[in-house]
Amino acid sequence: MRKILAWVLIGFAIIALVATLIIENKNNDNDLTKIKVAEVTHSIFYAPQYIAIKNGYFEDNGLDVELILTPGADKVTAAVLSGDVQIGFSGSEATIYVYNGGEEDYLKTFAGLTNKDGSFLVARKKDDNFKIEDLKGKHVIAGRVGGMPVMNFEWALRNNNIDPTKDLNVDTSIEFASMQGAFIGGTGDYVSVFELSVRQ
Q: Residue 182 class from Cβ within 10 Å (0-12 exposed, 13-18 middle, 19+ buried)?
């Protein structure tokens, strides 16, 4: 009888231990590591990130990701350097500028989500037969000097034998977050944007 009672007590002890471990594990699941990410823009091109957040893939790996819209790579960089966010999501030019500036605490690019430029060129007037040569003599809002959108746009122009300094007005005076508003307000013949949200 004593042996049976001893085995029953051992069994209850094992069950109690397993239950404690399960409860402790569940409590640990609630202790997610909070990560703040400064995102340069909302774009369909970043869909994998949105899907991962929506479907809980980050939480499954112990992360609670807070996405903060921070228009412009310069502002994303400032947010990371100030410690307001842990990760900045923008073009890699920001890391190059900080490094070339001689900062001891420079940024490091550690991942890429897209391998193509996600910009669209939106026209003020409909043109069913548009050719890139049609940009000659036009005013194009293209982004901040040194920013990825304007660098990619100028690269595309040069690859089509169009000189961005002579053949058209590439407007780099309007900051990233204000480009669509400026275009809607009447500035420019074209605007380079990430999302097709500019309507006339």
A: middle
Distance CA 199, CA 180 (A): 10
Integer Cα distance of 57 and 67 in angstroms: 14
- The CATH T-level fold of domain 120-193 is D-Maltodextrin-Binding Protein; domain 2 (3.40.190)
> In this predicted model, what pLDDT tens digit does every residue of 161-196 receive, in sequence order?
999 999 999 999 988 778 888 999 999 999 988 765
- Indicate whether this model's pTM tops 0.70: no
Domain ranges of the chain: 32-100, 120-193
CA 12 – CA 197 distance, rounded (Å): 63
pLDDT tens column, 118-140:
778 899 999 999 999 999 999 99
Read off the DSSP letter of residue 197.
-
